[in-house]
Amino acid sequence: MLISLGWLTALMAGIFAIHIGQKLCFPYFWKDVFYLTRVVRYGLKMEIYKVTSKVFTVLDKFVQQAARIPHKTFIIYEGISYTYRDIDERSNKVAQVFEALGTVKKGDTVALLMNNEPDFLCVWFGLNKLGCSVAFLNTNIKCRSLLHCFNCCGAKILIVGQDLLGMLEEILPSLQEDCIQVWAMKTESSHPGVHTLLDKLQEAPALPVPAERRVTASLKTPTLYIFTSGTTGLPKAAVISHLQSLKGAAGFWAYGGTSEDVVYIPLPLYHSAASLIGIGGTIELGATCVLKKKFSASQFWTDCKKYNVTIFQYIGELCRYLCNQPKAEGEKEHKVRMAVGNGLRQDVWREFHRRFGEIRMCELYGSTEGNLCFMNHVGKVGAVGRSNFFYKLLFKYELVKYDMVKDEPLLNEQGFCERVKKGETGLLLSRVNARAPFFGYAGSKQLTEKKLLRDVLVQGDMYVNTGDLMVEDEEDFISFRDRVGDTFRWKGENVATTEVAETLGLVDFIQEANVYGVEVPGSEGRAGMAAVIIRPNCEFDGKKLFDQVLHYLPGYARPLFIRIQDFMETTGTLKHQKFRLVDSGFNPSTISDPLYFLDNGEKSYVPLTDAVYGSIVSGQQKL
Prior knowledge:
Blueprint: H1 2-25, H2 29-52, H3 58-68, E1 73-77, E2 80-83, H4 84-101, E3 109-113, H5 118-129, E4 133-136, H6 143-153, E5 157-160, H7 172-177, E6 181-184, E7 194-196, H8 198-203, E8 222-227, E9 237-241, H9 242-249, H10 251-254, E10 262-265, H11 272-285, E11 288-291, H12 300-306, E12 311-315, H13 318-323, E13 338-342, H14 346-356, E14 360-365, E15 374-375, E16 385-386, H15 389-394, E17 397-400, E18 402-403, E19 408-409, E20 425-431, H16 445-450, E21 452-454, E22 462-472, E23 477-483, E24 488-490, E25 493-495, H17 497-505, E26 510-518, E27 527-534, H18 542-552, E28 561-564, H19 579-584, E29 595-599, E30 604-607, H20 610-617
Parallel strand pairs: 1-11, 3-4, 3-5, 4-8, 5-6, 6-7, 10-11, 10-12, 12-13, 13-14, 27-28
Antiparallel strand pairs: 1-2, 8-9, 14-15, 16-23, 17-20, 18-19, 20-22, 21-22, 22-23, 24-25, 26-27, 28-29, 29-30
Helix pairs in contact: 4-5, 9-11
């Protein structure tokens, strides 16, 4: 008996020691296991599709959910609820209209230009039911860029929201010359040659289109085209396959979302975050979605409380805008438990928790056209994802040294890239293989090829150049540092705009900062400049800002110029616009905004006058 008790005690002590050892040496072990189990389960489903050639798409899942839970609310929009059956039947009507007219056939591409509303989904699903691909057009692009989008994706039909028809007036003749049919979500139209859709939907039957119309034999078949915002040139049409759609739809589920969740989507549906992750994820769970026409910081928490929101989506500066709202009572009195998105800065992350409670912030990383995704399933502040030994077996990526002067990866004597060490910043490259194909951009093999790097580490390999500078620490957490195009070089050093913007954001009177580099005559590289917005009821304090950058930033990273703006120009997905600011430089005679210059002698940021500007460009003022 004593021997048995001794063995039992030893066994318990051993288990306890293993547990303590695991906590100390592998603190994220079980979280990694649970997360990877979900990833593998979903991956096996994809592999089964390949073997059986029976691809079950996101649309198939929606049709299945509409049959399984027809009366459950799918969309809440402006206070009105739409069930899964409502959206299914109305999308059937869209399909029946175009089926009866015979204007589209399986494999065609139809362009969609609409703001967030339930009919966006009905048109999208209706066209998919006919076997068509849908091109989501960015509602912020105009004229020449819009015409360019049609050339990219080959669409011959455009469906436009009734509130956006006016923006087409300039290019309607060009569209008609190119034989592109324009359909407006209206009952009648005063524009010659523009067809109306709402009146025809009223008469159309809600009968389902035969399922064989939408059947596809390959996960690689394109189902959508999602355009980049075109901040650095004309928009590019990223090819979205069924494979990418299915992966996006698994996002909420991978983070632990359930059918009981209510998802808040304030982002534009033409963007992959809202459409692939938001709508696709809601469908995958069989959950409910609150769809906003446009993000409103002042209405955000009111909506969350009114509709019992449990998950919301964010991107870029959305959380920062919420933190900048005036404080109110009961800010933590809500049911939101999780937020999914990307681009959340560390300072905003901590402030958001302080203001609104310990909401689980689920950062993820992945571009619209990319073939790699990172997910921060642990919730470590500042990380966009987490890797480990097993993840690296499934998904091949590398962080390689980057030459900022030549603006290209650094090559060794053998002509290959070199990996960076743990803790060092490197360019993220994602391996292209059968498990992670790269579909590129529609209408331009040149743009697709430009994103690819060959013979990276060995002869014959191929990687996608993400254009993102990342760092992986000793615990395998991955953090975003900057975009290659955003990082600039000054005084022989690389300046990460994200890091500088975070430092400026810690100053109490600065609400928002957009950091970039400007050319200075006679100087190599680009000098740092920041466009900032001053908080309401605050004033610019040059001395306080000088002390901040002096204390927290190295000399080469301190912005030499400050530009105060009333509002920050952003894309439809809240990304900062930089190229106009870069082009306008720092000349006070051509810029109406207040400008300041970092004066080391005065130990302050002082007004940038014409005289000071002249001394800088002439070389009299040393930088």
